[in-house]
Amino acid sequence: MVKARKYVVVKRFDGPPKRDDFEIVEEELSNTLQNGEILVKTEWISVDPYLRAYSIRYSVPYDQFSFQVGIVEESKNPKFPVGTRVVSHNGWRDYTIMDPNKGETLSDRVYKLPPLNGLSDSLGVGAVGMPGATAYFGFLEICQPKAGETVVVTGAAGAVGSIVGQIAKIKGCRVIGFAGSDDKVKWLENDLGFDKAFNYKTVDVTAALKQAAPKGVDCYFDNVGGEISSLILNQMNEFGRVAVCGSISSYNENPTKLPKATILQPTLVFKQLKVEGFLIWRWMNRWSEAFAELVGWIASGKLKTPEHVTEGFENLFDAFSGMLSGDNFGKAVVKV
Ligand code: NDP
Fold first, then answer.
1. Mutational test site, ligand 1, from 62, 224, 230, 250, max ligand atoms within 8 Å of CB
2. Are 49 and 252 in contact (CB under 8 A)?
3. What residues flank ligand 1, with Cβ below 6 Å?
4. What is the Å distance from ligand 1's center to 161 Cα?
5. Which of 17, 18, 327, 328 could form a disulfide with 322 if both were Cys (CB 3.0 to 4.6 A apart)?
6. Closest CA to 223 of 89, 324, 72
7. What number is the ipTM of this complex?
8. What is the pTM of this model?
9. Which atom of ligand 1 is closest in space to residue 49's alpha carbon?
10. What top-level branch of life does the organism fall under (predicted)?
11. Counting atoms of ligand 1 from 1, which one is nearest the CA of 156?
12. Dist. CA 218–CA 213, nearest whole Å
């Protein structure tokens, strides 16, 4: 009998999550697979900001979420033989029985790890997984960047932001990033090829943008929301495009009690800005397009895919909490 370990939320909480809000429990899995089912051993688990946001907004416990890469250990599904590597959305657990034919919603789907040409399988929850697709479609479809334009990215040193900035460079744009430490700023400029980066905790954002983007901002990829985004929107050019990807600056706040924000409608009207929020599920049927192009860029050296790896299932909470407070350079993942 296989025993799975999984995290469950034992206390509802306000503010930043704490270790004793979670417990690791054991679950006995059935000895016999039904036709169509596979037994998957988890190898990599993603920790993502949306777990925090969803748990507050929809009162959903964390153990129902998180992408993972795993290997099929037993199979009664000829399309997923033993040894197949799969990406699924099963939460913080180390073994799972699933039926790839039975995903009820887009996020329930199990799919084969895309061909990675020898790259680490962990990319299946990162640059060649949901965060990579988010950067690719959110930026290219909503911002519609043109060569020579100026792009600003917040959360620039994270999983999604670091890819958005590099795609913008591939498309011939000038890229300015905001991140939360001086080391991240240096890393973005020296290692990832951003034209300019700033520590949003220490700079005057408006002054920084006036200096780094004297002709204004054409595209803004917003990972963080809050006041910094209002300041950036005020520096945009006419017909600028804004992809609203996330708002991590408020994920620990109760969504019914958010602080009042700067009034932005006059800016939106007079600059004729297009501001569009999105969820990556919108393009799920096209993810393979993004994956093929992203793998090509990685192989040709145009796209770097840094990861912040935490070892051990028992350290998942620390990885999650550390990611929320900015420990990660690139994608935060856990090696199980
Ligand atoms: P990251 O890898 O960027 O990790 C989160 C980062 O957020 C931290 O490293 C930290 O970096 C930064 N951060 C934490 N608190 C704050 C704050 N108060 N203000 C500004 N930055 C903060 O995560 P992802 O790349 O996975 O996600 C980035 C954003 O994209 C999130 O908002 C997420 O919810 C969103 N997202 C949206 C999707 C969609 O479908 N719309 C899909 C995937 C992600 P720092 O040191 O710079 O502060």
1. 224
2. no
3. 48-50, 53, 131, 134, 155, 157-161, 179-181, 184, 223-224, 245-249, 278-280, 323-324, 326, 328, 332
4. 8
5. 327
6. 324
7. 0.99
8. 0.96
9. 34
10. Eukaryota
11. 47
12. 10
